[in-house]
Structures are given as structure tokens and as C-alpha cells.
Amino acid sequence: MNFYRLNTLSRRAVSAAGVFRMGSPTRSPRAAATVGLAAIGIALGAALSTGSVAAADVRSASARYQDTVASSSAASSRRSNRETPTVAAIRRASPSVVNLHGHKTVRQAVSSIGGAAPDVARQVNGMGTGVVIDPRGYVVTNYHVVEDVFEINVTLQDGSTTTADLVVSDPASDLALVKLRGSGPFPTIPRGHSNDLMVGEPVIAIGNAFGYVHTSTVGIVSALHRDIPVNETQSYRDLIQTSAGINPGNSGGPLLNIDGEMIGLNVAVRVGAQQIAFAIPIDQVLDTVTEMVSRHNDRRFVIGMNGTSEQDGGLRIVGLSKGGSAQLGGLQTGDRIMKINEDNIDTELQYALAVLDAEPGQKLRMEFQRDEETYETFVATLPATAASADPIASLAWQVIGVAVRPAGDAFTRRMNSQLKTSYRGGLLITDVRPGSAADQQSLRSGDVLLGIHSWQTSSLGDLAEILQHPEIRQGPNAKFYIVRRDQTLFGHMQLAAQPTTTRR
Fold first, then answer.
1. What is residue 168's three-state secondary structure?
2. Do 442 and 489 meet the contact criterion of CB atoms below 8 Å apart?
């Protein structure tokens, strides 16, 4: 079974690399015709006399006026019938859809008589689509759209152009986050949910199809929870199947419901088929992007706070690192963060993006609620170090060789729904110490530690109890469980023995 990715390379270039992704033209087409608007001039040629106007003339003018009103009303009625929910949905979402294009270098092996085939580098044009998810200009798209692109050029809906910078990416999930250059605010996509989709409900795709910017097509949800293999090393899981027409250049564009809300990110089509296309569900997209940004933040600085979004707004603090900057700023477990600087905080992603804009050493103004009262504090973004002041973090770095933080509720929800597990959570690995037990077993940033021996590591408290257990303190060859790319894996690693302490 073959699938095209709706990516940026030409078909010829990609098939030579062994992956049959969908290509795009090397030049963006222009509109084939220009619509001319004929100016309609209305001459007011009635000569007014100084005498009185006849009653018949008045009635005639009144009748003409009534005819004009009736005609205008009929035209208005016809226009309102034409303005269907599909028209309204496209109008609502289009301003937040951007077109991405650029150049990348592709290396191809060419035949050589009597020797090894040398690599030949050549430039190919590529294009795709992106969706603005934050007014500061953060755009989500597919990783394969921006992979190896030197300069990401962007065309907005109004025809203006700018460039974008790659912020974070995750090849495993084929997602990337870029940031538009220029002053905002930028219009953001209305977000729906993908956990309540119905087979048969109408959907709309918007994208840069074959270079025709802001192309809109319609279809229905054909099926849900599709697992699609792309090649020997990558597959997509739990996708939305749709009959909306999507083509090369549609990658990274939104799949909308009839209310104009984004419910998926278009990613692939079935090779040789008609109206069989696939999109990553929006809930999965946002959960993954949140994890990507949080990992990136953890590598830059330490705040020492973990939270979960509340239905009525704000981010509830569920965990604080001892001695972390959030605790030093006076925050407590149970506080609800409402604002960071001038940004309202309603989701974990909004919190991650607000922190992403900060620089190491900067103080963030946080507005929070406690016991129905609103307070303000300032929290510093301390430069990240693998071994922090937290004794549990230092012990994990010494014994296992990892820096970790709670993976969050988004990970737990996805893990339990997709992997059908009973784990309460996990610890996201943000760094691995070279030469450590974790390094020798090829653990890496982005893995989620689920357990050691027969104990779950669903929280930092769990990890503290495990590391302080007498059996673990002896440095055993311990079995561990992780999640990587939505797969549950296990292995064994030789933990470092901890020095014993004696009383004097």
C-alpha cells in the first residue's frame, strides 16, 4: 500500500530518495484571467423647473422607488441563500491560513562506471500550508513541509509576504512549529475538537494546492481512527479519513468542520485513489505541539512548575519543584495562573508559548488566583542545568542519567486512548547524561519514562520513592518501560549505586 505525503518536494526528487511523497510544481501559477469591473454611470438628467411638481409625477417617482426597493430586496434574498454555511466557514478560517514555500537541497546518487555512485546535490522548489495558532505568529505545519528548507517564505491571505523561522519540530509525528516575522497580532484559526467527530459530517480543506494559494475543497468525514503506513520507518496513527480533495501543497493546511473550526491537519492521500485523504486530528496536533514546546523550554531554562488547564479558564498548578523559581516567586500548588505578562492563559499550550517568548534570566509577570483573590508575582526563568537544586532531580541525573519533568495530562489522555494502557502518567525525559545508564540503553530526549521494575513513575513523587528504595540504592540491573513515538518499549539498565550514609 502506497501513500503520498502532501509535501514540498518534486515527485522525481522524492522517489529517488525511496519515499514516494507527493510533489508540487516548481513555479506557482498565476490566475489565468483578470476580472474587469465595468463602471456603471447613473446620469441624473431631470431638469427642475421653478414651478410645482405634478401629482402624477410624484406618484410615478414613488412607484419607481418601490420597484427599486423590491428589486433590491429580492437581490438581497438571493445573496443570503447563496451564503451557505460552507461559505461562512471558509470566510471565518481563511485569514489564519498561510502558504509556505522555499527551496531545499536534495542529494541524489548517480551511476558511475567502475566506481561508487557519487552524490549530486540539486535545488528543488517546495510548497505547503500552515495554520496560525497564536496571535504572535506561531504557525503549525507538517515537518516534511519545512524539513531542510533554508528560508521559509510565507504568503498571507491578503497577498502580503514575509518569512518564518523554525522553532521546534518532531519528525516522528511529522509536526513543526514556525514563527512568522513581522508585527502582529495575526488572525488565529478557530479551534474545534476531534474527539466528537461523526462519520458523514461535512468538512472543508484549505491549502496551497499545486501552488494555487487558498484553494478550498469540500467533502465528508469518511472514517475515523485510521493507521496509515508511509514507509518502512514511519507511519501515522489515529488519522481522520476524508473525501475532501487535497493535493500536493495541501500539507499542513487545516481540515475544518462546517462551523469553520479546525478539526485536523491535512497530511496524506492514497496513491492512485480518488477522494481518499487523511488528516491528523486537532486534539493530537495540539497535544504534540504542547509537548514539543515544553521540551524546548526545558532545555533553555527552569521554572519548576507543572499545570493543567481548567475548563473555566486558567492553568491550575499541580506540581512545583522544591527551590524552583516558581516556588521562590510565592506560587503554591492549587494556584491558578490567569496571565503571563499580557497573555491570557487558558491552556497548557498557551502557557508553553508564553514561556517560549521569554529569554533566560527574564522575569515573567504572572497573574494568578488563590482563594477567589487575584494576585501578581514575578517568576525568573533560571538558566537550565541538568542537575538542578532539586535533590530528586540531582539523584535522577546521578543514578539513571536523565533530567525529567511530568509529561502532563495531555500525554496521559493520549496514551490511555491510543495505547489502551492503565498508566496514570509518566515522566518526560528532557536530557540524557553522556555515559550514564540511560545513555548506554539509548534513551533520549522526548522518551517518556513509565516505570522502573514493578513501580510506575507517573510523578516526581513516585520517582523519589523509587530512587530511595533500598533495592534501587544498591544499583541493580533494573527493568524500565518507556513510550517512544506512541510505542511502549522496555529494556534493562545498570543503575549507579548510591553511597551509604552512617550516623556518627
1. strand
2. no
Last residue of a domain, one of 383, 417, 444: 383
Beta partners for residue 4, in sequence order:
269
Q: Which amino acid is at 19?
A: V
Distance between first and last Cα of the chain: 71
C-beta separation of 273 from 236 below 8 A: no
Domain limits at 230?
A: 1-25+72-281
List the chain residues with pLDDT less than 70.
Answer: 1-79, 104-125, 232-233, 323, 383-390, 410, 415-423, 499-504
User: Are 375 and 432 contained in the same domain?
Assistant: no
Same domain, 396 and 377: no
Question: Is 315 inside a domain boundary?
Answer: yes
Do 171 and 260 share a domain, yes or no? yes
Q: Phi and psi for 56 in degrees, rounded to 5? A: -65, -40
- Give the helix/strand (H/E) hosting 216: strand 212-229
Residues 306-345 pLDDT 10s: 888 888 889 999 888 776 788 888 999 999 999 999 889 9
How many other C-beta atoms lie within 10 A of the C-beta of residue 77? 10
Which CATH number fits the domain that encloses residue 235?
2.40.10.120
Confidence at residue 90, expressed as pLDDT on a 0 to 100 scale: 97
Residue in 101, 173, 174, 462 annotated catalytic: 174
pLDDT exceeding 90 applies to what percent of the chain? 39
- Note the pLDDT of residue 377: 94
Whether 325 and 468 map to the same domain: the answer is no
Give the pLDDT score at 22.
Answer: 37
- Distance in angstroms (rounded) separating the CA atoms of residues 236 and 248: 18
Calpha distance 139→177 (Å, rounded): 6
Q: Does the annotation count 251 as an active-site position?
A: yes
Dihedral sign, Cα of residue 101, residue 105, residue 109, residue 114: positive
Residue (of 301, 267, 299) closest to 176 by Cα position: 267
Catalytic member of 24, 101, 134, 144: 144
What's the grid cell of residue 302?
A: 527552569
pLDDT recorded at residue 332: 93
| Cα–Cα distance, 14 to 17 (Å, whole number) | 5
Distance CA 8, CA 127 (A): 5
**CATH number of the domain that residue 353 is part of:** 2.30.42.10
112 noted as active-site residue: no
Told to judge if 144 belongs to the known catalytic residues of this protein, a careful annotator would answer yes
User: Of 24, 169, 251, 458, which one is the catalytic site residue?
Assistant: 251
What is the C-alpha separation between 209 and 253, in angstroms, rounded?
A: 10
